[in-house]
Prior knowledge:
The protein is of the alpha+beta class.
Amino acid sequence: MNPTAALPAGDRLLRYITKTESGCWEWQRCKTAFGYGRIGYGGRVWTTHRLAAACWLDFDTSSGLQVLHHCDNPPCINPEHLFIGTAADNMQDCAAKNRLGGGRKWRTLYCHRGHFLAGDNRAGKYGACRTCRDAYPRQPKERRAELRWQQQPIVPLEVGQLWDDCDPRNAGRRVRVVEVGGSHAVVIAVRSADAALSRIPRRGRVALWRFRPGSGGFRLVAYRLAHGTDQ
Length: 231
């Protein structure tokens, strides 16, 4: 059980704030995409500035009114920076602070990891978070493919080994390794899933990472010596 769950709402709010030089009490826990804090209290989830207004400004949460910021800082819960107003008051406040935008032009203030999206921290056509992009880089497709080919089989692959195909679509297919390269092995089908093709030694290339048990891999059966015996 969360030890802070039994605390009054005001005390819980004050446990997770940082006071800034401007006087803001910034919420440090979960936030929305727009930067407003979120907290669970009384069996429901609140935005922290509304809960702060209910605690310290006697705000009636069922009144249909809104809680606005003098400081224009969404995570702030300092009651001195909050005031109560209507939706029209909120729009007038946005216009006065030059924050109005429409449709796709409206930009969120924080990314989903809580980084402030402004200035140099916005990147790309859609204003992605540069901090997240640098901290969690995506590997190019070629690099991911290279790492995949570098996966070695559980059993060292050698010429002459017999492997059964584990793919249910190729049930009964068995291949013999005739050549091992850097990322692929050349195999010949010695038993085909299709009885009509069982006499045709079909030759093909198989990626090395597939020579391991799995739904799309191969299972080692035996090692065929050069003179044709199994062991």
